[in-house]
Specification:
With about 300 residues, this protein is α+β, with helices and mostly antiparallel strands. The chain has one domain: outer membrane lipoprotein receptor (LolB), chain A. The protein contains six helices and 13 strands. The strands form two sheets. It has an eleven-stranded antiparallel beta sheet with strand order 6-5-4-3-2-1-13-12-11-8-7, covered by helices on one side. It has a two-stranded antiparallel sheet with strand order 9-10. A hairpin with an 8-residue loop joins strand 5 and strand 6. Helix 1 packs antiparallel against helix 2 and helix 3 packs antiparallel against helix 4. The protein is globular, with a radius of gyration of 27 Å. The relative contact order is 0.15.
Length: about 300
Amino acid sequence: MSHPLRAARRGGLPPFLMAGVLFWAGVVGAQALVQPPVSSNARIEALLEQSSNAMAAVYDYRGTLVKRELFGDELVEQTIEFKFSRPFKVYVKYVEPHAGREGIYVHGENRNRVRAHKGSIPDVAVSLNPLGRVAMEDNHHPITSFGLERMLELSTRNLRKAIERGDSALRVSNGGMIRGEPTWRIDIESGPSGRYVPAKGSEDLWTLAKRVGQDAYVIRHHNDDIDSPSDLHEGQRVFIPRYYGSRGEYFIGKRTLMIVKARSWDHHGNLYESYEYTELELNPGLEARDFDHRNRDYDFVLVNQR
């Protein structure tokens, strides 16, 4: 295709027509360079996909988690040192409160129970049902749901539901520095929507939550008549929130692409959960002994029994 200026010259166009040709040629060229703006939804989908791909390359990690969870009117804060390895091995040690408390869960071992001790006298190592009352004390989530991958899954499910339904406000912005790493911040505001579902005769809160695709403690938090996960009866009308919270913030590292901080608010506007990895080391090369209660660096075995 010939250039419009050369074509104009060959045709002997007057100057004012040549100026018009040049003007429109410039407009066409400018339009070719301008790209349509990328929507917030598309950017969120891309970030979630990139984070998932980055997560697949992480085989183990260790660090420190600061978590805040709402129980009734009390926001309980805990600081926990941890180690995690695929396919699913977890070691946790409480820094505060309950300093010295330790737990180990290895899927497929110890009858899928948590090996734990409370870290205070009298102290003895026990095996606990990870969904039981003792193991779930001051915890929204069982140890079987621990880790970066689970936090990414919950966040992704919440955000993609909002994108599909188109009933929430979503945006992406710079999230500032966390642990010296610049982050992206994803915000969601969804409102207090939900539905009522009748409980089945054999269900507890865990099985109901699995059936309806919502977190067990989110359901319990928004149903005042449920005192414990076993406190359900056939036909009971249970409110199931559509979203994990009415508002959420998710922070994804720009270098690691890990989701390193997440916060959510309940349908009453109260901070419901906050999780932040204040220290995080990816792929440090953890070994089997890191998830063995007989490890002498741990305190599952009392000093006078070693």
